[in-house]
Amino acid sequence: MDIIEVEGLTKYYKKFLAVDNISFNVREGEFFGLLGPNGAGKTTTIRILTGLLKPSSGNIFVTGIDVRKNSVEVKSNIGIISETANPYLEMSAWDNLMFAGALHSLSREERRKRAEDLLKLLGLYNRRNEKVENFSKGLRKRVAIALALMHDPQVLFLDEPTSGLDVQSSRMIRQFLRKLNENGVTIFLTTHYIEEADSLCDRIGIIKNGKIIAIDSPENLKAQSKKKRTLEISFENTLENIAEEIQKLPNVKLVKKYADKFIIHTDDISETIKELVNFASKKNLRIVSLNTMAPSLEDTFVELTGLSSLELERIEQIGKMRKMKM
Amino acid sequence: MGKNTLSKNIIKSFYIAWKDLRIYYSSPAALMMGLLFPILMFLTFWLGRNLPLSVALPGLAALTVFFGSSSIAVTTLALERAKNTFDTQISMPVPLIFLIIGKTIASCIYGFVITIIPISILALIAKSPTNYFMFLTALTASSLCSSGLGMLLAATAKRVHEAMTPLNIIRIPMMFISGIFLPIESFPRYLQIIAYLMPLTYVVDSLKYSLIMQGTVKSYITDMVALIIFSAVFLVIATKRLNDTLK
Ligand SMILES: Nc1ncnc2c1ncn2[C@@H]1O[C@H](COP(=O)(O)OP(=O)(O)OP(=O)(O)O)[C@@H](O)[C@H]1O
Ligand SMILES: [Mg+2]
Fold first, then answer.
1. Suppose A32 and one of A26, A267, A312, B222 were both cysteines; which one would form an S-S bond, judging by CB atoms 3.0 to 4.6 Å apart?
2. CA pair distance A324, A322, nearest whole angstrom
């Protein structure tokens, strides 16, 4: 069964089209990531899927229930960690969890048992009676995760769970999510960290300007990249017109020279390598290095979203700065 | 599935009320606003005229419960947004109307408690002919209605002052034509009509009857009905406005 079914989801803010007729499904037990640059529509999408925001049009079923008709029942089946949601700072971690448990109609024993387990798993048990006010950003995020998991939801939704956190907290949260997913919880997260999506997700949807422009496993997405057919070669000595000579070899599409390297786009990597070795020995050239360029998810992302790597880096920086201020 | 039955939702409302009471009502700012402001207002306008304490009681009670409950209602709802806990709250499976009811219960309890203690003591000192059953009933209806007004104004506010400013714009003029300082009968006709469209007028009238036996049972019952209708309307509109913010 598909645990999330989205068909024709569209969202206008007044006249601004933020999400443009997207459709996709997520299978039960899947780890799904929505990856996109700032302003792509990730938050808008995840808020609509979780019933925190109403769509302009489209059909959305989560755990088999129509979110537009019965968001309260959907909320009993899912956990939500939205981008900026805080636990109640004036209460302790423990009291926050008791409150969440009560609103999910758990019995007193269930609440205590569950809170104890979660706080231990998330490394918060020793600080359970401290006010959340005193917690760092990373610890608050962990409390938010525990809050969302009190009722043992079937699906966990996270909007940029690691943005603005340090490396250690991020890693801890990623490992925790992996374990959760192994235990059968479906996970839907949004991120603009490409490596995060790559290392966690079974499947990734790439969103830009409110449209999903690709949706596949990380490996298949990488295979889409043009770079998979790229070689890089450099020679010890050099001759005039090497580039033109290489260009004439069978299968070679394009040759570019960067510093002392030649970047070669080809239809058939294996054949071109053989040709290049032949070519080098015929011309008495010593090969210093020959690399096939492994495609990264970033390459695909950059190609699909039309952002240059430099722009991408800048956007990530801005994203980080913005998130840290909050 | 019967997962979210009425009784379960009512229980959830009480948990929300309990949380709010714990968090917001211990805040000194809320206490100051709720208690000090009406008392100061009252002292300024009333005691200068040298009237007996018992005559002053209903006005003091009305201002305390009205200002207290509406201030705290605004604070508890708007602060959820201002402190980014609103998402945490609405991520939980509670229909919006029960969220509003929970917060209203908390505001009612607050207004009720800060009023009942000083007014009962003063009523005993002044030996006023108070009907305590009617007084408690009037106070409950009054705090409910005042909380409802606060909820209505705070439903769309992102910060406390965004709702507190319109609340003050409404309730300060209301105070002068509600019959606290001058009897409504002494007003020109058009002001009388306005007075009868305002909830505070019914708060004052019901407290005058129950605390010092001024007025009639018939008007007391009218007051109760009016306050309950006002409350219901306020809470329904508050829920609708809150729902609209999710669009
Ligand atoms: N409440 C709103 N009113 C008007 N426009 C909005 C609103 N919320 C978001 N937008 C716009 O909709 C678009 C999508 O925003 P959204 O927050 O979904 O993007 P995002 O992918 O989550 O971005 P980020 O990486 O910055 O979190 C943006 O252009 C944003 O400016
Ligand atoms: Mg976002």
1. A26
2. 5
